[in-house]
Design brief:
Layout (H helix, E strand, L loop, with lengths): L4 E2 L1 H8 L18 E2 L8 H7 L14 H6 L13 E2 L5 H9 L4 H15 L2 H13 L9 H13 L3 H13 L7 H13 L5 H13 L8 H13 L3 H13 L8 H13 L6 H10 L7 H13 L3 H13 L7 H13 L5 H17 L7 H11 L1
Antiparallel strand pairs: 1-3, 2-3
Length: about 375
């Protein structure tokens, strides 16, 4: 770590963060400017004001006996420091300053001080974010500078920076595609302690689906989802719910536990939970049978474009299952499912189209004379 001393001139920027940060006594609380005191607890300014010209170095050969009788000469001159010290400014404080247009420049200056003085990993990561996404006129978007700062943060063990590098290299963001480096950094972020929850979910997803040349391994996927879910990652909670509901990844199938986790994920807005929850409630499979709840979740899934939800809703409207029977709505949902290549959807489209056409061509049955008489009576 570099020295933590800076001159008073460069400390003025930080002073604006906390009025009264300067103090004659040494401050022990973090993130405040501190004035180093001398042995007597006085600052240089106070000492200069209180010091009287009664003590001075004696002239060579002068008689100092009378002085020695009245006062004790110190063994050495007191050490006086004119420097100020600054402690690390919290990242959350800097973020608030950056989000305030009137203080954004101060926030950036403090961020740079954190980096120049302390070489702080979290500050490198935040500067990487600023370069990655840009910050108006304050910081121009520059993916190369973002990568440079993320790498410095990742080298110091910052899991968030490693996760960002993994995203950039795996997606080829800014032309920086590098699958091997992407996997390396994503794993670094996932395996840190406690690790980045998003990276843990992503590594689990890669293992579950065998992506980016990562061998398919549902047991490893399950383990990474567990790590991520412990940090309250909603996507990982949903993934665990699906694993328990379907008995994947070597876990013992427990549909009730799966529904509980899926409900938690759905309440957090995770789209992947909706359709399975709808299916569970419609069939009473791992949850109390509740057709209204089932239709509710299936419609949520359909609103998000889930093709499986389209197919199930088509079935419900075709058969009046949990809703009013409506062949036209059923056909519409089957068609949407067929467009997404859901198995059996195309056959349903053909079948329903034929039934609807036949219904159009079949003449309506004539009402009996009794029905006509009753109708005429009430229409009078």
């Amino acid at each position: 770590m570099k020295t933590s001393h800076i001159t008073l001139a460069s400390a003025v920027i930080i002073a604006s963060l906390a009025p009264g940060a300067f103090s004659a006594k040494a401050q022990t609380s973090e993130n405040r400017l501190i004035v180093i005191s001398n042995e007597s607890g006085q600052t240089k300014q106070q000492q200069q004001q209180d010091q009287k010209p009664t003590m001075r170095l004696p002239e060579i050969g002068a008689n100092t006996a009378s002085d020695a009788d009245t006062q004790q000469t110190p063994n050495r001159l007191p050490e006086i420091s004119s420097e100020q010290t600054i402690s690390l400014i919290p990242i959350e404080t800097i973020k608030k300053l950056l989000d305030d247009p009137s203080n954004a420049q101060i926030g950036l200056s403090n961020l740079n001080n954190n980096i120049e003085i302390f070489e702080d990993a979290a500050s490198y990561n935040l500067l990487g974010d600023l370069y990655r996404y840009g910050k108006g006129k304050l910081v121009k978007k520059d993916i190369r500078e973002a990568i440079k700062n993320y790498q410095k943060a990742a080298q110091k063990g910052n899991a968030d920076a490693a996760c960002s590098l993994g995203f950039i290299y795996l997606s080829g963001e800014g032309g920086a595609e590098n699958i091997n480096d992407g996997i390396k950094y994503m794993r670094q972020a996932a395996d840190a302690n406690p690790g980045n929850d998003v990276a843990q979910f992503n590594v689990g997803y890669m293992y579950e689906n065998g992506l980016y040349n990562v061998p398919k391994d549902e047991k490893r996927a399950f383990a990474y989802y567990q790590k991520s879910a412990r940090q309250k990652n909603s996507d990982a909670i949903c993934a665990l719910g699906l694993f328990y509901y379907n008995g994947k990844g070597g876990c013992i199938q427990d549909k009730a536990k799966g529904v509980k986790l899926l409900k938690e994920a759905a309440d957090a807005g995770v789209v992947d939970a909706y359709t399975t929850l709808g299916q569970a409630y419609m069939n009473g499979d791992g949850a109390p049978k509740d057709l209204l709840q089932g239709i509710h979740y299936l419609k949520l899934g359909a609103d998000e474009g889930d093709p499986t939800a389209f197919f199930y809703l088509g079935f419900c409207y075709e058969n009046g299952f949990g809703t009013t029977k409506d062949l036209k709505k059923a056909l519409n949902y089957y068609q949407k499912a067929a467009e997404q290549n859901i198995k059996g959807a195309s056959e349903k489209v053909t079948e329903l189209s034929s039934r609807i056409q036949n219904n159009k061509n079949t003449p309506a049955k004539k009402k009996s004379k009794t029905q006509e008489a009753i109708r005429n009576y009430f229409d009078r």
